[in-house]
Amino acid sequence: MTTINYSKYLPLSEATFYVMVALSEPMHGYAIMQKVETISEGNVVIGPGTLYGAFTTLEKQGLIIKVKEEERRKSYALTELGQQILTEQIRRLEIMVKNGQLILKYLQQGAVK
Q1: In terms of C-beta density within 10 A (0-12 exposed, 13-18 middle, 19 or more buried), how is residue 57 classed?
Q2: pLDDT tens string 32-60
């Protein structure tokens, strides 16, 4: 069993995180841009330059793979390594949210100065 050096890949940028989440199922670029905007509730809008830059990086890292190409539309999917990296990112985010929620109630009460 190979141990993954997560520090080589993490933390993911917000845009890269959402691209990888969108690729939980094989998808082409335009569909990814639409899905990212929807699932991020409009907080993240990815343009073609950002998306194709992310594709290049993620392919080089072995985190995604092109699975289909028809009429200039390329579809990508997460590799097994990509799924493991995304899983670890989500685990790290859960810890951040848990700690953020602990301090949030104090911030809302004005208890932290």
Answers
A1: middle
A2: 999 999 999 999 999 999 999 999 999 99
